[in-house]
């Protein structure tokens, strides 16, 4: 049986179409006609021997084979881009990039970002700060950070990019869940103020006419997880990095979604920060795809 070599250009169009939610938009991004992108998708399906997309209402959704292909396509494209950057890396100026990110991503996302960037660009020094949202944004404003991955708090920066939108969820202990039905006030485990997620939790409870009390306050995410696991109260986070000892609960007031943003300082090194931003975006898309499949049955 002859080996099949997938066309990276075709895979790039396929990934762009899925991420943009439209192959017509993908055609615009790739500077090609819609018919050319459709022909590429047909070629990919012929090579794989499986349909990648199926109709759902007026749109298209991934088939099971398409989901598998999407995951591999992202990995292949990331490796291809890393190889090209590694070979051409001497063209980038040497420098020092200071990157900040939320604690939610410290263990799950950071290793992939560090590994890929330092392998491709060993001439750059990469310093990373894992901290809370306001600390990261303050560091960006003061010129102490060049690139920041943080929750959207309504701030406007000259250079910003939406990375995704995530649901806020009530989180409780699996082994010692809080019986909220028998309480006059909901015990809340939260970060010290100011905190976007704490504010969202309090607003949701107050709008529903429910009382709340601060059961535990922490300056670290690990402290939040430990207190919730011990049954001291409930907290509000996104599903990212949720420990196995905790669970989502659906019987408390509805919460809003929150956007995840990538901010860059205006004074940051253009080429180095741009390449790091690409790697962060690729790693985040792959990570969120895995989270959605495991947490929400996708």
Task: Describe the protein in words.
The chain is 43% helix and 24% strand. It has 298 residues and is α/β, with parallel strands linked by helices. Helix 1 (8-20) packs across helix 2 (23-29) and helix 2 packs across helix 3 (34-48). The model is unreliable at 292-298 (pLDDT under 50).
Tell me the name of the CATH homologous superfamily of the largest domain: Periplasmic binding protein-like II
Question: Strand-residue fraction?
Answer: 15-25%
Mean pLDDT: 84
> What is the global morphology?
globular
Report the count of strand segments: 12
> How are the strands of the biggest sheet laid out side by side?
4-3-5-12-6
Tally of distinct domains: 3
Structural class: alpha/beta
CATH architecture of the largest domain: 3-Layer(aba) Sandwich
Helix tally equals: 9
CATH third-level topology of the largest domain: D-Maltodextrin-Binding Protein, domain 2
What is the end-to-end distance? 33 Å
How many strands, which pairing sense, and closed or not: the largest β-sheet? 5 strands, mixed
The stretches of 5 or more residues where confidence is low (pLDDT under 50) are: 292-298
Domain HTH lysR-type: 6-63
GO molecular function: DNA binding; DNA-binding transcription factor activity
Keywords: DNA-binding, Transcription, Transcription regulation
Pfam families: HTH_1, LysR_substrate
Search tags:
298 residues, alpha/beta, Arc Repressor Mutant, subunit A, D-Maltodextrin-Binding Protein, domain 2, five-stranded mixed beta sheet, three-stranded antiparallel beta sheet, 12 strands, 43% helix, globular, disordered C terminus, LysR family transcriptional regulator, DNA-binding, DNA-binding transcription factor activity, LysR_subst-bd, transcription
């Amino acid at each position: 049986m002859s080996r099949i070599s997938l066309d990276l250009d075709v895979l790039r169009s396929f990934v762009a179409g899925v991420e943009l939610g439209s192959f017509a938009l993908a055609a615009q991004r790739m500077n090609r006609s819609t018919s050319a992108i459709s022909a590429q998708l047909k070629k990919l399906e012929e090579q794989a021997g499986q349909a990648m997309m199926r109709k759902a209402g007026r749109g298209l959704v991934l088939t099971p084979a398409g989901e598998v292909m999407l995951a591999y396509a992202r990995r292949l494209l990331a490796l291809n881009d890393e190889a090209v950057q590694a070979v051409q890396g001497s063209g980038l100026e040497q420098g020092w990039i200071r990157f900040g990110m939320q604690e939610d991503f410290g263990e799950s996302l950071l290793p992939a970002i560090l590994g890929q960037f330092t392998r491709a660009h060993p001439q750059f020094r990469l310093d990373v700060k894992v901290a809370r949202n306001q600390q990261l944004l303050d560091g960006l404003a003061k010129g102490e950070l060049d690139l920041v991955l943080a929750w959207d708090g309504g701030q406007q920066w000259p250079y910003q990019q939406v990375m995704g939108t995530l649901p806020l969820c009530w989180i409780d202990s699996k082994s010692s869940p809080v019986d909220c039905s028998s309480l006059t006030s909901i015990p809340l485990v939260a970060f010290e103020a100011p905190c976007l997620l704490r504010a969202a939790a309090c607003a949701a409870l107050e709008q529903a006419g429910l009382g709340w009390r601060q059961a535990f306050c922490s300056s670290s995410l690990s402290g939040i997880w430990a207190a919730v696991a011990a049954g001291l109260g409930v907290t509000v986070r996104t599903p990212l990095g949720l420990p196995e000892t905790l669970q989502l609960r659906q019987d408390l007031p509805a919460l809003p979604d929150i956007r995840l943003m990538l901010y860059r300082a205006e004074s940051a090194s253009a080429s180095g920060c741009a390449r790091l931003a690409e790697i962060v975006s690729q790693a985040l898309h792959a990570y969120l795809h895995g989270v959605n499949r495991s947490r929400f049955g996708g």
